[in-house]
Specification:
InterPro entries: Peptidase_aspartic_dom_sf. The chain is mainly beta. The protein has 3 helices and 12 strands.
Amino acid sequence: MLYKKRHERRRGSHTSEEPQATLEIPQRFTVTFTDEDMQEEDGYHNRLPYISGYLCEIKMSKMLADGCSTVIILPLHILKLVNISTKDLQTTRVMIQGFNQERQRALGKVSLDLMIVGLEKTSWFHVIDSKSTYNTLLGRPWIHSNNVVPSILHQCLKYCKDGSEWMIKAYENPSTIEESYFADAKYYQRNKTSEAHPKEEPEAHRVAQSKIN
């Protein structure tokens, strides 16, 4: 009898004319990529989208937005470049694993101010003592906190701010001549004049005027 009553209640709930409660999810923003955003004409390349910005008010090139990294990584020599001592690092148990599956413990973590054309955020950087092709690896914590959508194919990053969609173009020549021994440098050899700090400041280009609810 108990089962029958429960079954009738469930069956009755489907035939009821009373309005059902619905979950409303507000729309935050929409980012789209088109062929017009392609920085390479044919779209065929093997490049990483390096950008530049300011770390602790010091201009920094070769920042790489990487959605595969769960942390923001800062090489030890860059930490010294921004005049911060390892004594200022906080202890962390985070282990960093490279593409060759080798693991190393981070020397520590530190909270630093980072500004990249329109995006200003204080973030936690995990410091490692290792050579790398980047000066800063901007992992998912930075990407998600800034609502950034990077596209390796289009060689740019997009984000929404103040009701508009904005785009940051990656640099065509992120490496200096001295860094040309890096494996990925050959993918940028088409342009002969490589500079660590481009003459023009990076800009965020407004893509569209779209209202964000």
